[in-house]
């Protein structure tokens, strides 16, 4: 039989959950096509990525540039990150788009805090025939 919780105890449980999320860092993989690597949480859009980043601490953020025709790009996310001063501990740019990769790298390199590690690891798109 479940014991009903008071408003105070429900609030205490929510506060503990929030504290736990702050201490539990996640890795986020932003990409519209590639499968998500093990150990990462997948975001298929900039909006999903922002939701994950603002919900808790992000250890590694791996970014694609092209996220679908007419959709916000990885560069749009980087501009948002710079504007809001919202960074992961490590940022990897895995986009195969050389121009998008360069734009994201340049903006992040110029504005990121010195403690944020930035790297590029382009991954080719793999299609099954």
Structure described in brief:
The protein contains four helices and five strands. The protein has helices spanning 7-23, 46-55, 74-84, 98-111; strands spanning 26-30, 41-43, 58-63, 90-93, 117-120.
Explain this structure:
It is a single chain. By secondary structure, the chain is α/β, with parallel strands linked by helices. 40% of the residues lie in helices and 17% in strands. It has helices at residues 7-23, 46-55, 74-84, 98-111; strands at residues 26-30, 41-43, 58-63, 90-93, 117-120. It has a five-stranded parallel β-sheet. Helix 4 links the parallel strand 4 (90-93) and strand 5 (117-120).
Strands of the widest sheet, in order across it, are: 2-1-3-4-5
Tally of DSSP helical segments:
4
User: Helix content range of the residues, please?
Assistant: 40-55%
Distance between termini?
A: 55 Å
Order of helices and strands: HEEHEHEHE
User: Would you identify the regions where 5 or more consecutive residues have pLDDT less than 50?
Assistant: 1-5
Derived structural class: alpha/beta
Give the rounded overall mean pLDDT.
Answer: 86
The biggest sheet, with number of strands, parallel, antiparallel or mixed sense and barrel status, is:
5 strands, parallel
Write down the Rg. Answer: 17 Å
Percent of sequence in beta strands? 15-25%
Quaternary state of this entry equals single chain
Shape descriptor reads: globular
């Amino acid at each position: 039989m479940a014991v009903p919780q008071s408003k105070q105890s429900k609030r205490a449980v929510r506060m503990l959950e929030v504290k736990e999320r702050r201490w539990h860092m996640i890795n986020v993989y932003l990409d519209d096509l590639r499968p998500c690597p093990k150990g990462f949480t997948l975001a298929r859009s900039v909006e999903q990525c922002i939701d994950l980043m603002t919900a808790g601490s992000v250890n590694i953020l791996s970014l694609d540039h092209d996220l679908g025709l007419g959709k916000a790009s990885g560069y749009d996310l980087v501009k948002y990150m710079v504007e809001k001063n919202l960074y992961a501990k490590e940022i990897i740019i895995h986009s195969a788009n050389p121009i998008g990769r360069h734009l994201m790298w340049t903006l992040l390199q110029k504005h990121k805090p010195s403690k944020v590690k930035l790297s590029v690891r382009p991954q080719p798109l793999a299609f099954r025939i």
